[in-house]
Amino acid sequence: MLVSATEMLQKAKAGHYAVGQFNINNLEWTKAILTTAQELNSPVILGVSEGAGKYMTGYKTVVGMVNGMMEELGITVPVALHLDHGSYEGCLKCVEAGFSSIMFDGSHYPIDENVEKTKELVKIAHEHGMSIEAEVGSIGGEEDGVIGKGECADPEECKMVADLGIDFLAAGIGNIHGKYPANWEGLSFETLDAIQQRTGIMPLVLHGGTGIPDDMIKKAISLGVAKINVNTECQLSFADATRKYIEAGKDLEGKGFDPRKLLKPGTDAIMATVKEKMELFGSVGKA
Ligand code: G3H
Ligand code: ZN
C-alpha cells in the first residue's frame, strides 16, 4: 500500500540519513526502483513529473500501474507516490487520482502568492492523508519544462513556508537539475545551515541529486537533508546500457530485438544506480 512520505522522512531526519526520490517514466523504471528498494529493505519515493505523468497517459494510469505492481511484486517497504514540481492544478489532479504525496512548486511566484497557494494545498493534501512538499528559491536548470533560475533561498522565506504545515521543504542552495557544468560552484552549505536553523525539525529536500559529489551529499544530510531527488542519473545509466547493447549488435542476435530483452540492460543499469544512491544516502535497511 502506498504511504505518505511524512513518517519515512521524519525518521530519516532524526536518523541522519536520506530517502531517495527516483523519478519514473514507464513500467521498467518503476519495476527497477521498487525491486531495488525491496531487496535493500529501503523506504523509497517514486517521483512523477507532470511531463512523465502525461507520457504515461495520465495520473490514474500511474496509480493503477504502481498499485498493481506493488501487490504483484509483494513490495512491503514504505513507498510514496509523489508528484514532482507540480503546478496548483497538477496537485489537485494527483489528489484525485490517488497519489500519496504531492509537491507544489510555487518557487516562480512572488513569495506571497507561493505562500497563499501552498497554504490551500496543505489543507487539501492533509484532508486526504497525503504529504506535501513546497519549494522556496528556485532550483537551477531545466526538468521536463520546469526551468529554474538557480538562486539560493532566503532562510526567512523558508521559515514562512515551513510554518504553513508542509511536511518537507525544498530550498535552492545552488543545486541544479541535470548535469552540473564544469564551473559549478558547489552547494551553499552556509545557506543550508541557515535554513535548517530557521526550520528546525522540518525534513529538507535536495533536488538535482545527479552528479553531486559524495562528500557534498553526506554534508547536506548532516545539515538536515532527508530526501534527495535523482532523475537524470537513471536516464543516463539507462541510455548508456541500451546504447552498448545495440552497438554490440545484440538486438540482431536471435530474439535480441524482443523489447523484454532490449530493455533489460537499461533496466539493470537503473537498478545499479538506485542501489548505489540508497547506499550513499544511508537508507538501506531502514524500512
Ligand atoms: O525533481 C527531481 C530532481 O530534482 C532530479 O534532478 O535530474 O538532476 O537528478 P536530476
Ligand atoms: Zn527537482
UniProtKB/TrEMBL annotation:
Cofactor note (record): Binds 2 Zn(2+) ions per subunit. One is catalytic and the other provides a structural contribution.
Binding residues annotated for Zn(2+) 1, in chain numbering: 85, 177, 207
GO molecular function annotations of the record: fructose-bisphosphate aldolase activity; zinc ion binding
Keyword annotations: Lyase, Metal-binding, Zinc
Tree of life domain: Bacteria
GO BP field: fructose 1,6-bisphosphate metabolic process; glycolytic process
Keyword ATP-binding: no
Record-linked InterPro entries: Aldolase_TIM, Class_II_FBP_aldolase, FBA_II, Fruc_bis_ald_class-2
E.C. no: 4.1.2.13
Sequence positions that bind dihydroxyacetone phosphate: 178, 208-210, 229-232
Cofactor: Zn(2+)
Active site: 84 (proton donor)
Residue sites binding Zn(2+) 2 per the record: 105, 135
PROSITE patterns tied to this protein: ALDOLASE_CLASS_II_2
Protein name stated in the entry: Class II fructose-1,6-bisphosphate aldolase
Organism this protein belongs to: [Ruminococcus] lactaris
